[in-house]
Write a sequence for this structure.
């Protein structure tokens, strides 16, 4: 490029191009330089730091810009998609710098140059996109062109609008027709720009019975137009879609053109599918867009050109009205908006332009053909291979679901089960979309929420492929990632309803419906003091759920347990993640209920024990005080005198028994220690009540993780393997109970019912008891013996 710059006669232009190249290299290479802080002069507090002194050099300024773009070294790098700026991108950026330089020319040269740039760019765009005999308006904001077109239509239909203004519109209100599938906020923007009330907008519904559900209902539109004419309104403009913003559907533009010509309505077309007009073969419904009154093109994202203006092509014969509407301007700065596109189109050439658009269409077709071979993936536009947009979602028919309710999408009378299934699919699709965006960022996948179809994933290569450099291998990688996530999605969706039913059938557990959670489900334990009607924080519930979460994570299962996202409700809940394998839901719910109940009981036992011990100490002090008083009465006053008492005790010793008190934690009562001092052993005391045994824990095979179904598909096993498996389970029960097989037969004959096997906690307690026999007695010396 340096050799090319030397051939330029204008030294200023050559120097500017050289500086721009150096600046681009510095910003792209990511090299940072450290400013020398030594020798700086004292600065004033009134002048901002960057403006102090005699200014800064270009290197320092570019270094500051680079730090603002990419962040400091201490900040963690963010995984954001960065557009691939190639040589054509540098040419587009050069156009913005050239515009500032060209504006310094004298007026005559500037007028000739801007007129040449504007006329050339307009002619090239008309030829490329097959729009004959039209003009072009270049604008930065994509919707600005449509606002100018609406203003032109108002001036064309209302001859006295320039003189009378709003009075003309008040007597005969204009109507702008928009499809229900149009971009959100488009009607609000038009009314704000034109100063019209929202009542001037008319939203046309999409097809409900026949045709695509994202195409404008032409029969209903015709009825709306006739009703507006009868009420004294003026149908002004219709906005049609050649590739809707959501799913890329194209309206029947040919039929809409006939309807607009019949009633004198201005027809404007916009959409991503207009890019395919540059290809060799164009479908007839889209080819009708070339006959419309105006269309808006966005060549920047289509061709991967950064900071490129949008273009609105229109047909009108009155230059005065276009000037009043703002579509044409005599200012050179407005005409110079076409300069970046003028340079980029020449750099790419026709083959480069068509090649990029064709490559994007091939990517969409490749993905669509591959998705048809993947199970549980629904494509919203299977019949339109020419569409450059692919919208798909994960979908699975659950057993027992009624297809009658799904035949009418968006029905307000759908049962609760269908609503839960819709929420489950939306949450799973949202999770799948986020996973695919992270795994395959080069595809530029986006997650969209559609009113009828729910949460879907959209692949629009015309808007992202040129900038990201998407290739066919990226599409294949996307398909591979989808197939790898399908087992987790299908398994989780099948277990969600079973988990809900199991939780609702379990006491003290409450099922929490969270439509945004993609896991198996959300459950909350209801303790004794739980108030469901209150939304206040529950410290006791938070303590129980925190302990429950810790216990569940210690099980080392394949499931993930969390307290939920940050935006969760005030009440504490346990969020169960996704499952990639079959899970025993009954065991999972049973474990949650038993563990939470044990945590609550242990917490209450500790609180009750503290109160009982406090009362026991007070009672022991009272009893010991009474014993001291009785001892004084029994021994007499003389024995309490130091010298006399010793003499009396020597001649006549008192046979007093040693009395004390012990506190029985099991019975919660005070007992005398007289039996202990007489027999030199601790008394048996009160027999503690039997510990309530928990629910029988499931016996697992060696290496089997918790909550796994061990006998799934057991019908296919042979009889011999089934018997041997049952014998293995019986041996495991015998080992856990501490009995030999012979003793088991003696104690449990065939006629007698077999006693339930002890739980894991009871087995551990028996082992501790055998290792520490001195801890067998239930009583504990709670107080020091007093004489």
């Amino acid at each position: 490029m340096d050799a090319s710059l030397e051939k330029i006669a204008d030294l200023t232009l050559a120097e500017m191009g050289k500086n721009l190249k150096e600046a681009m290299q510095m910003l792209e290479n990511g090299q940072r330089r450290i400013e020398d802080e030594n020798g700086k002069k004292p600065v004033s507090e009134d002048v901002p730091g960057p403006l102090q002194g005699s200014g800064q050099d270009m290197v320092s300024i570019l270094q500051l810009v680079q730090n603002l773009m990419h962040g400091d070294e201490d900040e963690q790098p963010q995984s954001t998609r960065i557009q691939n700026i190639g040589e054509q991108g540098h040419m587009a950026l050069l156009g913005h710098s050239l515009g500032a330089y060209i504006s310094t020319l004298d007026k005559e040269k500037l007028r000739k140059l801007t007129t040449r740039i504007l006329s050339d760019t307009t002619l090239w765009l008309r030829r490329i996109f097959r729009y004959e005999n039209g003009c072009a308006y270049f604008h930065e904001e994509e919707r600005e062109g449509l606002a100018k077109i609406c203003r032109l239509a108002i001036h064309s239909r209302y001859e006295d609008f320039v003189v009378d203004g709003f009075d003309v519109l008040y007597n005969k209100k204009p109507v702008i027709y928009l499809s229900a599938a149009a971009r959100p906020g488009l009607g609000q923007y038009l009314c704000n720009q034109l100063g019209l009330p929202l009542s001037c907008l008319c939203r046309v519904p999409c097809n409900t019975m026949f045709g695509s559900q994202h195409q404008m209902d032409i029969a209903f539109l015709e009825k709306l137009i006739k009703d507006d004419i009868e009420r004294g309104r003026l149908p002004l403009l219709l906005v049609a879609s050649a590739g809707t913003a959501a799913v890329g559907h194209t309206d029947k533009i040919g039929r809409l053109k006939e309807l607009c010509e019949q009633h004198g309505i201005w027809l404007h077309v916009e959409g991503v599918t207009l890019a395919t007009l540059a290809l060799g073969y164009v479908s007839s419904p889209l080819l009708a867009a070339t006959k419309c009154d105006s269309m808006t093109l966005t060549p920047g994202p289509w061709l991967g050109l950064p900071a490129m203006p949008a273009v609105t092509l229109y047909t009108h014969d009155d230059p005065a009205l276009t000037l009043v509407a703002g579509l044409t301007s005599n200012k050179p700065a407005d005409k110079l908006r076409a300069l970046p596109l003028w340079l980029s189109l020449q750099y790419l050439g026709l083959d480069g332009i068509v090649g990029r658009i064709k490559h994007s269409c091939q990517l969409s077709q490749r993905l669509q053909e591959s998705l048809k071979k993947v199970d549980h993936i629904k494509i919203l536009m299977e019949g339109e291979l020419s569409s450059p947009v692919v919208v798909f979602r994960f979908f699975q028919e659950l057993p027992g679901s009624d297809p009658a309710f799904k035949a009418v999408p968006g029905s307000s009378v759908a049962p609760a089960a269908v609503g839960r299934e819709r929420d489950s699919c939306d949450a799973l699709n949202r999770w799948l979309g986020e996973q695919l965006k992270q795994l395959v960022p080069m595809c530029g996948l986006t997650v969209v929420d559609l009113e009828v179809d729910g949460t879907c994933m959209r692949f629009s290569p015309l808007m992202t492929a040129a900038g990201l450099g998407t290739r066919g291998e990226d599409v294949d990688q996307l398909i591979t990632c989808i197939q790898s996530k399908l087992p987790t999605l299908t398994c989780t969706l099948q277990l969600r309803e079973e988990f809900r039913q199991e939780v609702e059938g379990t006491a003290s557990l409450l099922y929490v419906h969270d439509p945004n959670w993609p896991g198996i489900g959300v459950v909350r334990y209801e303790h004794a003091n739980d108030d469901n009607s209150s939304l206040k924080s529950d410290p006791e519930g938070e303590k129980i759920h925190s302990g429950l979460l810790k216990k569940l994570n210690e099980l080392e299962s394949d499931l993930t347990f969390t307290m939920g996202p940050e935006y969760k409700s005030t009440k504490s809940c346990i969020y169960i993640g996704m499952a990639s394998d079959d899970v025993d839901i009954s065991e999972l719910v049973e474990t949650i209920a038993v563990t939470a109940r044990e945590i609550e009981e242990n917490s209450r036992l500790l609180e009750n024990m503290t109160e009982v011990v406090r009362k026991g100490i007070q009672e022991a002090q009272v009893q010991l005080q009474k014993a001291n008083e009785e001892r004084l009465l029994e021994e007499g006053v003389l024995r309490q005198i130091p010298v006399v008492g010793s003499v009396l005790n020597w001649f006549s010793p008192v046979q007093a028994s040693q009395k004390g008190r012990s506190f029985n934690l099991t019975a919660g009562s005070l007992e005398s220690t007289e039996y202990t001092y007489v027999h030199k052993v601790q008394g048996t005391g009160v027999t503690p009540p039997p510990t309530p045994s928990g629910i029988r824990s499931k016996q697992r095979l060696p290496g089997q993780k918790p909550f796994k179904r061990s006998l799934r598909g057991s019908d296919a096993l042979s009889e011999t393997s089934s018997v041997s498996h049952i014998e293995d389970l019986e041996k495991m029960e015998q080992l856990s109970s501490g009995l030999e097989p012979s003793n088991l037969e003696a104690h449990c004959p065939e006629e007698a019912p077999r006693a339930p096997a002890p739980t894991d906690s009871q087995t551990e307690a028996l082992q501790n008891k055998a290792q520490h026999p001195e801890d067998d007695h239930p009583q504990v010396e709670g107080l020091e013996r007093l004489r």
User: Anything to note?
Assistant: The CA atoms of residues 367 and 517 lie 28 Å apart. The mean pLDDT is 77. Residues 585-635 form the longest helix (51 residues).
